[in-house]
Amino acid sequence: MIEIDRLTKTYGATKAVDSVSMTVEAGTITAIVGTSGSGKTTLLRMVNRLEEPSAGEVRINGTSTLTVKPHILRRRIGYAIQGHGLFPHHTVARNIAAVPELLQWPRDRIRARVDELLDLFSMDPAQFRDRYPSDLSGGQQQRVGVARALASRPDLLLMDEPFGALDPIIRARAQDDLRRIQQKLGSTIMLVTHDMEEAMRLGDKVAVMDAGRLVQYDTPARIITRPATDFVADMVGDVERPLRLLSLIPVSEIVADGPADGAALPAGASLRDALSACLWTGRSAVPVEQDGVQIGHVSLDAIRARVEFHP
Ligand SMILES: Nc1ncnc2c1ncn2[C@@H]1O[C@H](COP(=O)(O)OP(=O)(O)OP(=O)(O)O)[C@@H](O)[C@H]1O
What we know:
ABC transporter ATP-binding protein; six-stranded mixed sheet; CBS-domain; ATP-binding; Rossmann fold; binds adenosine-5'-triphosphate; ATP binding; ABC_transporter-like_CS; alpha/beta; 14 helices; transport; four-stranded antiparallel sheet
């Protein structure tokens, strides 16, 4: 568990971060979102003491980070940034192995870990292990950057706009990969983004920053349905709000008994997918299946009712 306790950073007269408190549960992703200059990066960099707090503290599993030497702390906390920051003259394997090598892991264990991570990121180790960063696509470099940050199984992974440089399609894929890998490894991640859509997609919790202050810290569904301030409401965007909400809810949540015509949606599909299917086929309901068996249907009326009922 990461406890951020009244964390503050002042630069002269500017309060870049103003008494921010929040608790991040282990094994979750927290997305920190806000406009440019709202203090996101400064908040993140105080967690691994790349910036020293002016006041307040961070506790990781109960221990104040102020009691740990910064270089030791940074070995325990992974850090991935936009543009990945790979060492250009090191192979992919050496890049990923950077922290395990510092920690003097045995050679076999390092090699096994590098291959495991490459596999996890869908990059064949035999093909990629000995390449240099310049021989990789932008998306592949970004994956190696995240793999490097995860290599020593850190207590916490900090990510600052990790997907900022990627085009939209590769970016969506990278987001899905991160979610899948985070769930598999049970990692705890704090991620900075200026993109609310990305925050909603990735965050178990979303922290909205405005002018150095944390204005709301909540689940994506509650941020959408109960924005704490006008600023949060603007960030979410009124027009798209119902659609964003629908994309967070699986059809399994409102599936009703009985058949419906047409191609079935999997139970894990979102209500946004179900709405698209209804509109596309001109039907008022779509069947839902799980493991190849139809388990019921979702109707347009049920979707509408679910949007009107705010969680
Ligand atoms: N080293 C510094 N010296 C002086 N002011 C700084 C310094 N670093 C950041 N600031 C100021 O602190 C505020 C918050 O900056 P920060 O980089 O944390 O914002 P951000 O939300 O991450 O913005 P962006 O999305 O543009 O990266 C800004 O007003 C910035 O100008």
